[in-house]
Amino acid sequence: MESLRIKETDRIAALQNELGKIGATLTEMDAGRWMLTPGKVSGEEITINTYHDHRMAMGLAPLATLTNLKIESPDVVNKSYPGFWDDMQSVGFEIR
What CATH number has the domain bearing residue 80? Predict the structure, then answer.
């Protein structure tokens, strides 16, 4: 789990920030044990910061099933999965 803090970004802090936009919280209960408390998604547009990390863009993209979602720097997925947005579109996601 500690490697999550030293990759492209501190993914734990990034997840806490971005999930906080929907009122969710990610709390470390004990070393390596986390609790996610769901939030309440509104109908308003939410802008997700990717922190230049492809996993953040891909991991948070499914929030688009719940709300109008804008992902900053969507091309960051090209690092590991260049066809990600095409594949998302092929299963019904609207990509603009």
Answer: 3.65.10.10
Q: Residues 12, 14, 17, 22: is their CA dihedral positive or negative?
A: negative
What does the pLDDT average to over 5-27? 86
pLDDT score for 42: 84
Q: Does residue 95 lie within any of the structural domains?
A: no
pLDDT tens digits along 36-51: 999 988 888 999 999 9
Burial of 2 (0-12, 13-18, 19+ CB in 10 A): exposed
What SS3 string covers the chain? CHHHHCCCCCHHHHHHHHHHCCCCEEEEEECCEEEEECCCCCCCCEEECCCCCHHHHHHHHHHHHCCCEEECCHHHHHHCCCCHHHHHHHCCCCCC
Does residue 85 form part of some domain? yes
